[in-house]
Amino acid sequence: MYELTINLKPGAKIPLYEQIYAYIKEEIRRGRISSGERLPSTRALSRHLDVSRSTVELAYEQLLSEGYIEAQPYRGYFAAQIDGLYRIERQTSSRKPAVSKETKKYSYDFTPNGVDLNSFPYNAWRKLSRESLVEDQAELFRLGCPQGEAGLRNVISSYLHQARGVECLPEQIIVGAGNDYLMMLLCAILGTGHKVALENPTYRQAYRLFANLSCEVCTVDMDAKGMKADELERSGADIAFVMPSHQYPLGTVMPIRRRMELLQWAEKEEGRYIIEDDYDSEFRYKGKPIPALQGYDRNGKVIYIGTFSKSIAPAIRMSYLVLPEAVHERYRERCGFISSTVSRIDQMILQKFIEEGYYERHLNKMRALYRSRHDTLLAELKKLGCGFDISGENAGVHLLLHFRDGRSEEELISLASEKGVKVYGLSGYYVDGPRTADETVILLGYANMREEKIKEAVSLLGEAWF
Amino acid sequence: MYELTINLKPGAKIPLYEQIYAYIKEEIRRGRISSGERLPSTRALSRHLDVSRSTVELAYEQLLSEGYIEAQPYRGYFAAQIDGLYRIERQTSSRKPAVSKETKKYSYDFTPNGVDLNSFPYNAWRKLSRESLVEDQAELFRLGCPQGEAGLRNVISSYLHQARGVECLPEQIIVGAGNDYLMMLLCAILGTGHKVALENPTYRQAYRLFANLSCEVCTVDMDAKGMKADELERSGADIAFVMPSHQYPLGTVMPIRRRMELLQWAEKEEGRYIIEDDYDSEFRYKGKPIPALQGYDRNGKVIYIGTFSKSIAPAIRMSYLVLPEAVHERYRERCGFISSTVSRIDQMILQKFIEEGYYERHLNKMRALYRSRHDTLLAELKKLGCGFDISGENAGVHLLLHFRDGRSEEELISLASEKGVKVYGLSGYYVDGPRTADETVILLGYANMREEKIKEAVSLLGEAWF
Q1: Contact between A141 and B314 using a beta-carbon 8 Å cutoff
Q2: How far apart are CA A6 and CA B108, in angstroms?
Q3: Which residues contact B374 (CB under 8 A, 6 or more apart)?
Q4: SS3 breakdown of chain B: % helix, strand, coil, rounded to 5?
Q5: Which chain A residues touch B140 with a CB distance below 8 Å?
């Protein structure tokens, strides 16, 4: 087979790789590419179609995973014998798909969970990864320290001290493959019989994790300063899960006074702990820096959790816990034997990334980038006039719009959607229904949207809503 | 500072990196390298001392993690102000060290958990890792599918079918960062209220995991065929954890008849499951290949767990579960939202590694290597005469010596230790004390020992024991 001449539509709502995938699948189904025929290499096809190689690779991967094509070592990709596929298709049909695919495609997506991945420091990461994979580095492939490598924990500890006012020794740090895993680990460390209080609204992933992992959970309402300490006391919880630097989703930055009240709550009884999730503290636009709650803690009451998902990329899967001494003791007794979930090679890459100054530069670059998107979004929103109030804009990578004109969240989302703009409602973050019936709140995340896009999208929102 | 001329002793029992580390630490402590002074680069020092660069890096890492030196981006390593270290040392002293270090150094170590890491396919891995870190591959840095990438699950599913007789769709596979993590996940999926039966002796890590993660655990004795099905029935357990391909530590290969009995046990009641840990099934020396238990299962009773730790390297941290439909349903309900613990880049590297035929070649190479070590060890042991029986030698990377001369495990280990040979006793693998008082069993792992070393070590064992 020479080439596939596919009539690609670059402006279409269907991504290029899906167009390629659909075309080839159809060709194979109809027998126009016959079983055993060799497909063009990804390199050749990408050149031929003038698309990036990864686009073709994604299409081939999809075809591979559905069995339409087969990969042969050193030889390339071949159209499969598709009779054999029927069995698989029958078997599959009885299951619901593991990940439900979004059907509607949007031109603009204000996802509050975005990270700008075009800024990922490919060159540095590639260089460090090459350096780490050195022939005589056999030691690196042995199972490492369950808590994570000493070198990495050391640089994280200095970073936390300098950047976040977190006081800890490398010994207190546990590196793990993402916040979800570390939360599972924390549940295993703390054991059963705890009641965890979360803010309402909150990061639902955390709520579901605690609820499904043998913890009792409850929610505590927030005021403008964060979780209400008196309500926390009444809740009967012994563990409070909070996000003081930038509450998700409300964007509240907890003032020092409230932080102290929470610490006092924890100190009142033995066994009470605060879990401080500092997920996106790297990005702050206004006001003085407030050190992490952990930095004020003198009695070992704060369990700190931080991540590189927001500041580098979600897919690198590295987060860390900082455990106070008593909890660390429990960790060693109950879970110290559990192997680390992060490969030592990846740990070494990250260590070098921080040590050699790449992380600092990357953070500065991302701060500037997000700040300018933040400023653009605010400026554009202000142009729209005064149909809403803005909150949560002092930190993080999303903000909130409050409407009091009686229109529902659903209505606003659907109006935006008609213009091709995806926005998000706050109600989904409430665990047992929103507290205020008199306002409708929309979330706009801007991490993953360029400034021109922001301008276009806000202007469309103006048309949609006013 | 120009160079450090360290009088290294390559034959000494202290590893080179420790010698370098100790030398520099002492120099800094005594003020002969003064605070702020720049150390030679790792490249320069390794050339100067004629050691590998990674050796110097390990030494520097240790010094860094203890605060004797500091790393400055682009500038290199500098001796630290060591006054500042006192506080840290004081604080540290109140804690026990996180990982206790083995003090005695052995010239020969028959660890049953070894993997030959010198055979790690550096070139292929480096090449694939370079290919995966492509500039326009931003998609790769987004959070992927919680179960693992479809492409990787697809190649694992074909591999399992061909190599292990495991029947599964890619949808049933969950990729995770190591067996420990997947076991934690499995506990979260199954929920509380289960009773897990493990073989006795068993892989203690699994026992501790289940015991610490809100499961009731019990042990069931083994006969020469594996876990006794009638005793399993009497135990009241609803989950059986077994290693049919090569029981750890006994090395038993479970015959088909016993596999069927276990499946019948599981089918007798709804909610009963068998967890099949197929940790080192890749290595087999004798007899016909027996497909995995999962391959015989017609009623969705077997939860299969496999790993690349033994066949590639422990540090790459990739294992997988194959869930029967009902368990997969529970997974989606209870844990489907938990993010994957393996980075997409690593998943893509592994996928390409398998797809492009590297894995097959690597496995063949390792099989030949381990087989020749296995044969050498058996031949050498036979030369020693008949003071013991050998078992567990048909598969895996370790075997067992049975002594019936009244000497204790402790005695045999200590005699070997005096000759610089580390061997392992079986009793540590029993959960509640060994069953047979009339024999003493020693484990010898050979994965990580070259043939000359095996010959030397066995000859020393002969001197020590007979």
Answers
A1: yes
A2: 62
A3: B285, B393, B397, B399, B446
A4: 45, 15, 40
A5: 315
Q: State the 10-residue block means of pLDDT for chain B, 466 residues long.
A: 69 80 83 81 82 85 78 82 44 39 77 85 88 73 88 93 88 96 94 91 89 87 92 96 92 89 96 93 74 91 94 88 96 92 93 92 89 94 90 89 93 95 91 74 93 96 94
Min Cα distance A41 → chain B (Å) is 13
ipTM of the complex: 0.74
> What are the chain A neighbours of B309 within 8 Å (beta carbons)?
143
CB distance A209 to A178 below 8 Å: no
Residue A208 has pLDDT above 80, yes or no: yes
Pairing of strands A424-425, A273-277: unpaired
Query: What CA–CA distances, in Å, run from B431 to B182, B219, B241, B348?
Result: 22, 8, 14, 39
Choose the closest CB to A170 out of B65, B146, B309.
Answer: B65
Nearest in space to B62 (alpha carbons), one of B74, B73, B54? B54
Of B58, B98, B171, Cβ closest to residue A98: B171
Tell me the C-alpha distance between B29 and B8, whole Å. Answer: 20
Distance (Å, whole) CA A298 – CA A260: 11
Residues of chain B with Cβ-Cβ distance to A92 below 8 Å are: 169, 171
Written as one letter, the residue type at A398 is H
Radius of gyration over every alpha carbon of chain B, rounded to an integer in angstroms: 25
For residue A188, the chain B residues in CB contact (below 8 A) are 184, 212-213
Q: Are A258 and A291 in contact (CB under 8 A)?
A: no
Burial A12-31 (b: 16+ CB within 10 A, else e): eeeebbbbbbebbbebbeee
Global confidence as pTM: 0.76
Dist. CA A345–CA A351, nearest whole Å? 10
Closest CB from B95, B313, B317 relative to A171: B95
CA distance A227 to A231: 8
* Contact at CB, A341 and B141, closer than 8 angstroms: no
Residue identified by tokens 């007798």 is: B268
Residues A84, A35: Cα–Cα separation, whole Å: 11
CB-CB under 8 Å, A130 with B126: yes
Q: CB B317 to CB A341 under 8 A? A: yes
Partners of B98 on chain A (C-beta within 8 Å) are 145, 147, 171, 332, 336
Cis peptide bond prior to B73, omega within 30° of 0: no
Question: In B, which residues are within 8 Å of A169 by CB distance?
Answer: 88, 91-92
Q: Which one of B75, B90, B184 makes the best mutation probe of the A interface by having the most chain A beta carbons within 10 Å?
A: B184
Alpha helices in B319-450 (DSSP H): 325-334, 344-355, 358-383, 409-418
Which residues make Cβ contacts (< 8 Å) with residue A104, sequence separation at least 6? A417
Could you tell me whether strands A424-425 and A440-445 are parallel, antiparallel, or unpaired per DSSP bridges? antiparallel
